[in-house]
Fold this sequence. Notes:
The protein is mostly helical. It contains six helices and no strands. It has a single domain, classed as MFS general substrate transporter like domains (Growth Hormone, Chain: A).
Amino acid sequence: xxxxxxxxxxxxxxxxxxxxxxxxxxxxxxxxxxxxxxxxxxxxxxxxxxxxxxxxxxxxxxxxxxxxxxxxxxxxxxxxxxxxxxxxxxxxxxxxxxxxxxxxxxxxxxxxxxxxxxxxxxxxxxxxxxxxxxxxxxxxxxxxxxxxxxxxxxxxxxxxxxxxxxxxxxxxxxxxxxxxxxxx
Length: 184
């Protein structure tokens, strides 16, 4: 009995794509969490109460968790119909595009209530994209695994979450070390 070829260029590409794609998605997700805690409240919400600003900012963070299962159903349906590669690319573009667009949003001081509305729409897009990518990457890795290696291939997208969590934490700490110290 011959063993299936495990270390092939195709398998390496599948594993790398599923790991890196998930890591990038979670990086975007967690970097938003850091920004929601530190800067989004005063930028996107009325200044009547700092606590209310922070809670509203966290509510936008929670919105993506509501969008994730919706994205999983949507991208799962189309992944079965038109293929996983196309839907994975679409989910990555949606997540990345939403993240980039958030960086260029006008603030509450500029456009009033439109700023938090746009933030919520883009945050929904981030969650929707992550929902589609997470399940799609796992299925893509497992469907391309050689016989007897499905569980090990299915592990790679799951490793993307912790990698995506560590990276923004490290980048936030590094960025903070270069900021001037406050005089308070």
